[in-house]
Design goal:
The structure holds 2 protein chains of 2 kinds. By secondary structure, chain A is of the alpha/beta class. Chain A is 39% helix and 16% strand. In chain B, strands 1, 2, 3, 4, 5, 15, 16 and 17 form an 8-stranded mixed β-sheet that branches. Classes of the chains: A alpha/beta, B alpha/beta. The interface between A and B is medium-sized, with 25 and 18 residues.
Chain lengths: 308, 426
């Protein structure tokens, strides 16, 4: 089966097969990063625009490196220096870049669904680099890729996601992706940010971190996003970190070979203690490294589809 | 000079009439309804309504005309054209224009514009509070004198219950109702669609059913306290239907409306971030739709109203969070209401009642009837003829409808206002 999607807007829209194709392609891409010359000419002559309407360091750098390793011409645009300040609409901004010859647009936006506005109305391929509280497909693909690398499989694993599920795009993408590939997903956090509706998305709901941790293979810690008003959903960071902060002691409840992931940036001492973050068993920095390979795969596959 | 409508099935719920007859209109009045009226005079217009329904002109008590202030979305002129094309002869317009219709001079401006440029009757609704800000009462008495038929802060619910009580008490002697957009804004804050499974998947902030229901409860209780007739706009949830039903059973002076979109569509339409599925109150679940249909059938819902809310394409063609709430409805309402008849929810007679005499009674206007001597506002439509909805062909200035492309039955052939044919389609 070939990958035939023009856009990658979310894991909710991809089939299990399509997700596997991206993961397999990422494996080949990872090999490129081990070479002395970390570059292939695949996308020579193509222009990719990174439209970042929300501050981001790691996702944007990771996409830029991925694009450059594929030899694309890369233009990055961030809202602070943009015409958005002058009142230009999202669509007009994108159309301008399209007129300049951009064939792929990578978009990060603070509002859910923003990439869909572009995908519907411009001819370039659109890759969602995180939209509001909706999806963050590249991050979830990195998480899943890393889990598969460590555990050799996804099917049958128990994966726990901890924190602000309601406002998290990483959580949604992971739930979609992991469920499609046959993992069981648990979610845990304060009741205000772990809505019942997630049960219908196939997640098992917990409110006690200790109970939720029992025998899990993987723990994905979400960031407490103070910029997304997470703080109005619970009384204090102190109380939150007491109830839902991951410590070495609590982690003993999980399987012995549990892996701990975090999409970053970490609030040390809130979501997890430094001893866990810096533990050789934590895969947080590996996630970052894998990020480049996964994003290369996403861009490559979308570009391939586009030239068909 | 007059108009003779021949051979139509005349349905007028105000006089329990449903039979094939002729109607003769002289000047601006209905003169005669009988089996056979011959001898039209030379200057008469004759309309052959064979196979069609002849009913009192439809009355929509929930319309946003946008003028003054937002003429790029709609004007009184285009809104009236859309109304006539949809079979409506009277429209009641909400005060959230710019400036807000919160004083008699704005009311007079709207009425002047309507007289000079509008082809259907326009009845304004005045604001409850100055600037719809919810701080102090607007000059309700003067607006009433100038021609406002109700008061409402539609879209900007009065959050202060004490002020809402004062408004309801103050307005009582003027004999006009309070129309409420029931919503507890603390519960709905930041919401852009129904709170539920779909909003969870899409990562959009939800508006819980409870936000409407808490508002409905409060206003029903204030209605009981003050004795002022209360009309509840666009009921969208199962809970609201139940609350209105219970209140009516207790004898509370409350009436309620439902919009065609709320009795037809669910929040699944938002998938893909479709901004033509964004309105407030939002599209809910199938369970809510079923409850509204039940309410329509048992009379809990008195009225079908459109909440016609025009917005330009540029305004809607943006991120879902940024798009304004609302869709146009005047040119699809009759067809969508006929679906209720088709599905056996209500009879054609009951449907016409909810679109004519019932809304007229709520706002106290002498319309919605064909009793001889009454003002000759009529609609002639073919209930069985199909058409494909084409937003591009709307008479409204705006095209924000989720129904474009739908195959619907019901085509208006003639709309008559005060004895004049203001719209006809061959």
């Amino acid at each position: 089966m070939a990958f035939s999607k023009k856009h990658i807007l979310g894991l909710g829209e991809l089939s299990a097969e399509e997700i596997k194709i991206i993961l397999d392609t990422a494996e080949s891409m990872k090999e490129i990063s081990t070479r002395d010359v970390k570059k292939v000419p695949t996308l020579k002559g193509r222009t990719i625009v990174n439209l970042f309407f929300e501050p981001s360091t790691r996702t944007r750098s990771s996409f830029e490196i991925a694009e450059k390793r594929l030899s694309a011409d890369v233009l990055s645009f961030s809202a602070s220096q943009s015409s958005i300040v002058k009142g230009e609409s999202l669509l007009d901004t994108a159309r301008n870049f399209e007129a300049m010859g951009a064939s792929i647009m990578v978009i990060r936006h603070g509002m859910s669904g923003a990439p869909f506005v572009l995908a519907r109305q411009i001819s370039a391929s659109v890759i969602n680099a995180g939209d509001g509280s909706h999806e963050h497909p590249s991050q979830a693909l990195i998480d899943i890729f890393t889990i598969r690398e460590k555990k050799g499989r996804i099917e049958g694993l128990d994966v726990l996601i901890v924190g602000d599920i309601l406002n998290s795009r990483v959580a949604r993408s992971n739930i979609f992706g992991l469920r499609k590939l046959g993992a069981r997903v648990r979610i845990v956090g304060p009741a205000t940010i772990v809505p019942e509706y997630f049960r219908d998305m196939g997640a098992e709901i917990f409110y006690s971190l200790e109970h939720a941790l029992e025998n899990v293979d993987v723990v994905i810690m979400l960031r407490v996003q103070s910029e997304r008003k997470t703080l109005e959903y619970f009384p204090s960071l102190r109380e939150y970190s007491g109830l839902y902060g991951l410590t070495r002691e609590k982690l003993r409840l999980a399987k012995e070979d549990v892996i701990v992931m975090h999409p970053g940036p970490i609030n040390r001492g809130v979501e997890l203690t430094s001893e866990i973050a810096d533990d050789p068993g934590a895969v947080i920095l590996e996630q970052v490294a894998n990020g480049i390979a996964v994003r290369m795969a996403m861009i490559y596959l979308v570009a391939l589809g586009e030239s068909l | 000079m007059g108009v003779l409508i021949k051979n139509g099935r005349v349905i007028d719920p105000s006089q329990s009439l449903d039979m094939v007859s002729d109607i003769y209109i002289q000047e601006d009045r209905v003169r005669e309804i009988s089996k056979r009226i011959d001898t039209p005079r030379k200057a008469d217009t004759v309309i052959d309504a064979s196979g069609q329904v002849v009913a009192p002109g439809l009355v929509d008590i929930h319309v946003h005309l946008r003028e003054p202030g937002y003429e790029h979305k709609e004007t009184i002129k285009t809104g009236c054209l859309a109304a006539a094309a949809g079979g409506f002869t009277s429209i009641v317009c909400m005060p959230n224009t710019n400036p807000i219709n919160d004083n008699a001079s704005v009311t007079e401006y709207i009425l002047l514009k309507a007289r000079t440029e509008g082809i259907v009757n326009v009845f304004p609704i005045g604001a409850i509070t100055k600037g719809e800000k919810g701080d102090e009462l607007a000059e309700i008495g003067e607006m009433c004198e100038a021609g406002c038929v109700a008061i409402s802060d539609d879209g900007m619910p009065v959050t202060d219950s004490g002020l809402m009580r004062k408004a309801m008490e103050y307005v009582r002697p003027f004999g006009i109702p309070v129309i409420t957009h029931a919503e507890d804004t603390g519960l709905s804050a930041g919401g852009v669609m129904n709170e539920g499974f779909v909003s969870t998947e899409l990562g959009l902030r939800g508006i819980p059913a409870a936000s409407e229901e808490v508002g409905v409860v409060r206003d029903i209780i204030l209605c009981e306290l003050t004795g002022t007739p209360l009309h509840i706009c666009h009921v969208s949830t199962k809970g609201s239907v139940r609350l209105v039903r219970e209140a009516k059973k207790r004898g509370v002076k409350v009436t309620a409306e439902a919009t065609p979109h709320h009795f037809t569509l669910t929040d699944k339409l938002v998938y893909g971030y479709n901004t033509d599925a964004k309105m407030n109150p939002p599209l809910r679940t199938q369970e809510d739709v079923d409850a509204i249909l039940e309410g329509i059938a048992d009379g809990t819902i008195d009225v079908i109203a459109t909440d016609h809310a025009p917005h330009s394409q540029d305004e809607k063609n943006v991120e879902f969070d940024l798009a304004p709430f609302g869709i146009v409805g005047l040119e699809t309402a009759l067809s969508l209401s006929l679906e209720l008849v088709e599905k056996g929810i209500i009879t054609l007679d009951e449907m016409i009642k909810k679109l004519t005499v019932a809304p007229s009674e709520i706002v106290g206007i002498e319309r919605g009837t064909l009793v001889p001597g009454s003002i000759a506002d009529l609609v002639v439509f073919d209930p069985g003829m199909s058409r494909t909805v084409k937003a591009g062909g709307f008479f409204s200035k705006s095209r924000n409808t989720p129904f474009s492309g739908w195959e619907l039955k019901g085509v208006v052939s003639n709309t008559i206002v005060s004895g004049k044919v203001v719209f006809s389609r061959n």
